[in-house]
From TrEMBL:
Keywords, in A-Z order: DNA-binding, Phosphoprotein
Residues found modified as 4-aspartylphosphate: D57
HTH luxR-type domain location: 146-211
Chain ranges of the Response regulatory domain: 6-122
Name of the protein in its database record: Transcriptional activator protein ExaE
Pfam hit, one: Response_reg
PANTHER family documented for this protein: TWO-COMPONENT RESPONSE REGULATOR
Length: 215
């Protein structure tokens, strides 16, 4: 009998984690051993539990999903993080993979995709949802970089940028990411300087250009 694949679930919504846990429990060789709702918790619990696979959302309070992936991967280069996100834009996919993720699937994928992805990543493979993989291939063939301007942003700056570009106020960004108003203000200044923009309207234009906003 093969040993069970141990999994840590990272999502800030308890009901969502419950759904993941139920879905994965239907596979005899997968066991959810711990859960986290913040990036900092995920990093701490990873060290304590050493799960085979981390199933992680990108939209997390605290340090955020991208920064959590980078921190876990820097501490353990062999870490196997599978991103499970609502975002299908290539900018998010590329940033997650560059941070150290070994897989990327979206929450709009079929339920069995999560189980398959966990098994593939646990086995040492890289798993990217087929539709996203096709987009990545097309971009590679076309020789385009989906995030040339945005590469200058840190993981947290990128999170703030995306929300501001979508029309969130500074206070709303602070509430969404559970950061202080002042911290978001500081991030906003850094983002504007790095991207050489002066208004949120210009941020929105960049976000639309890179597929982060829909028409």
């Amino acid at each position: 009998m093969n040993p069970k694949i141990t999994v840590m679930l990272v999502d800030d919504h308890a009901v969502v984690r419950a759904g993941y846990r139920l879905l994965l429990s239907q596979s005899e060789n997968i066991e959810v051993v711990c859960e986290a709702e913040r990036g900092e918790e995920a990093c701490q619990f990873y060290t304590e539990w050493q799960p085979d696979v981390v199933v992680m959302d990108l939209s997390l309070p605290g340090i955020g999903g991208l920064a959590s992936i980078r921190r876990i991967s820097s501490r353990d280069p062999g870490a196997k993080v599978l991103v499970f996100s609502i975002h299908d834009e290539l900018v998010y996919v590329l940033r997650a993979l560059e941070a150290g993720a070994k897989g990327y699937i979206t929450k709009s994928s079929a339920p069995e995709t999560l189980v398959e992805a966990v098994k593939k990543v646990a086995g040492g493979e890289t798993y990217v949802e087929p539709e996203i993989a096709q987009k990545l291939l097309a971009q590679t063939i076309a020789g385009k970089d989906a995030a040339t301007d945005l590469n200058a942003l840190s993981a947290r700056e990128f999170d703030v940028f995306c929300l501001l570009a979508k029309g969130y106020t500074t206070r709303e960004v602070a509430d969404e990411l559970r950061l202080s108003y002042k911290t978001v203000g500081n991030y906003t200044t850094l983002i504007k300087n790095k991207l050489n923009v002066s208004t949120t309207a210009e941020m929105a234009r960049l976000a639309y250009q890179y597929g982060l906003l829909k028409a």
